[in-house]
Specification:
Blueprint lengths: L1 H26 L1 H16 L6 H32 L5 H8 L2 H12 L6 H19 L7 H27 L5 H23 L7 H29 L1 H5 L5 H13 L5 H18 L1 H10 L1
Length: about 290
């Protein structure tokens, strides 16, 4: 049942912010993400058994490398850095701004016009960001403010990469994109991760969380996402954006005892309303009812 798969995907991706909070203090942001993408690439390696995918990799590797950096290496590292100062629920809500930034990146770099409803959605969504950030404990102090600002660049990177992949890798098998993005991210991060690797031992439980981040929240999640795209369409699969913050806040509350503040809830609702407007979900819903 697609709705169960969508819920499972949201729960898994929401859990990624929980695992970041657990692992980053031990690994450091960049080594942790190097582990995450390397594990995911190894799990997805059987994708290359198909000769057609190997041919596509040889043809499109430059574009796939850009996607690997912009859709995995950079945003994953930004979220990991934010996890040193920000809660799992907070970061999961910022992640929900991705469709807003996709509209902005499309207009700035890819010639995609912004309609009136999209402009209203952007204004609404960014008002939600302001509410969310203003209510974050520690905002105004250097490290927390900088972490929030850098974390917000992660969905910007996602938004740019979505348009880039659509334009330059539109003919590429989606599962190959999933593998190659993790593989190129791993290659990009390998050397700096080696330099920054922690000197002290890392507990087995933390290693287990890091492996879960790579296997469940990356390799399995991407596979599940593209399965939804193939079977029920990209628009339905993209609606996972609306569910991830719910699970991000829930896991943070249950396992890390993070508070869910009124500003988080109000900011989340406002951001999601803006996302629905910018992404056309409200218009499709109204059209469906009118029909």
């Amino acid at each position: 049942m697609p709705w169960l798969e969508l819920l499972a995907l949201a729960a898994i991706w929401g859990g990624s912010f929980l695992f970041l909070r657990i692992c980053v203090p031990w690994f450091g942001p960049l080594p942790l993400i190097a582990v995450r993408v390397a594990v995911a690439a190894l799990v997805l390696l059987p994708v290359l058994r198909a000769a057609t995918r190997r041919q596509q990799l040889r043809r499109d590797w430059r574009h796939l490398a850009v996607v690997g950096i912009g859709n995995s290496a950079l945003p994953f590292c930004l979220f990991a850095n934010g996890a040193l100062h920000l809660g799992a629920g907070f970061e999961s809500i910022l992640n929900a701004t991705t469709p807003l930034w996709a509209a902005v990146m499309g207009a700035l770099f890819f010639g995609s016009p912004i309609s009136r409803s999209q402009a209203l959605g952007l204004a609404t969504g960014f008002a939600g960001v302001a509410i969310l950030v203003a209510g974050q404990s520690g905002i105004g102090h250097g490290p927390v403010t900088l972490a929030a600002a850098l974390t917000l660049l992660a969905p910007v990177s996602y938004g740019f990469s979505a348009h880039y992949a659509r334009r330059h890798a539109g003919r590429t098998d989606p599962l190959l994109i999933a593998f190659a993005s993790q593989g190129f991210a791993a290659l990009t991060l390998a050397a700096p991760a080696g330099v920054l690797w922690p000197a002290g031992p890392i507990p087995a439980g933390v290693w287990a969380a890091a492996l879960a981040l790579g296997v469940l929240c990356t390799a399995l999640a991407y596979t599940l996402y593209f399965r939804l795209v193939v079977h029920v369409g990209a628009a339905y699969a993209a609606s996972v954006t609306f569910l991830i913050p719910v699970f991000g806040m829930l896991w943070g509350r249950l396992f890390l005892h993070e508070a869910i503040s009124a500003s988080m809830l109000l900011g989340c609702v406002t951001i999601l309303a803006g996302t629905a407007l910018a992404g056309g979900q409200w218009q499709r819903l109204l059209a469906r009812r009118a029909g």
